[in-house]
Amino acid sequence: MESVKIKFNTQDRPEFFQELRKRVNSYFKENNKSKYANTNMVIKTIVMISLYFIPYFLVLLNISSNSWVILGLWILMGLGMAGIGFSIMHDANHGAYSKNKNINKYLGYLINLVGGSAINWKIQHNVLHHSFTNIEGYDEDIDSGGLMRFSYDQKRFKIHRLQPFYVWFLYGLLTISWSVKKDFIQLERYKKKDLIKTQGIAYKDAFLRLIFIKLFYTSFILVLPIIFSSQVWWLTLIFYLIMHFVCSLTLSSIFQAAHVITKTSFPTPDKEGKMINNWAIHQLHTTANFARKNLLLSWFVGGLNYQIEHHLFPNICHIHYRKISKIVKQTTKEYGLPYYNHNTFIGALISHTKHLIKLGKYDVA
Description:
Distance between the termini: 22 Å
Strand order of the largest sheet: 1-2
Structural class: mainly alpha
Number of strands: 2
Number of helices: 14
Largest sheet: 2 strands, parallel
Order of helices and strands: HHHHHHHHHHEHHHEH
């Protein structure tokens, strides 16, 4: 748990990010491009929402009594959930989908329809993860409550020797944990940390809203299929859990491949909370890209294989990451700064596994 306020070193080569922002802004101005979504992004939005809702309605309409067909529909829903998270909700909650704040707000609410909470997401992801990437005690994305060890600053237990094997099962529980308990635990924690106010809402209103969206989500995604599906109730429940597992494993794998690998670092502040680097350079040391040439993967994961560009420019829609990545890479090279990248997604996952092995065996690097 954090005890001091993090202070990044503003004297650490501030000219780098100043120059990078200037070049990126010039790219959009010279090419007469908006930093927000375009027609292709709108088409992708329709596809991802359809991937989730069309199989759902086919289940309710009893399109088939064959259990394997129904299972296939639930798996498609799981991929649709992940697609909505990667490609729509993520950009919207960063304010990057549209210059219209209401469009961002309402598309951001899509997370409520896939088991999460827009309020909690913005605090955990936008406020904590993006501000304090890979800093133990501040970035909740690397806090598993001791079940897994991602940083050398975390205590090592004997069970962590086995984490390269069991983490994949735990990764598959991410969204089901959101939908059942994690959001309530987080909201209470954010109340104590006085973070709820960052979203412009009172705790009582946030809590009541959370109760409502959880009841609505459970009724919509589980109760109705149990009532109307041709499958027996327990089979529908199993399919529902499989849907969540598919979505969770997909989400977790992408995010871990971008931050928790052998190349990235996990910087520690001093006793006064001071960091060695400024914020932008800190992002370069704690973030990595992967499979930049894999256009299909990049399309599905909302450009999050360009994680460096996302962390430096979270308010730019992901459809532009591939283009501005050339600018970012060149600028980091000129300033002698790291630009971590794995050529393939599999390569990034192997690196992640190697990191887990080291963390399970050794107390220090």
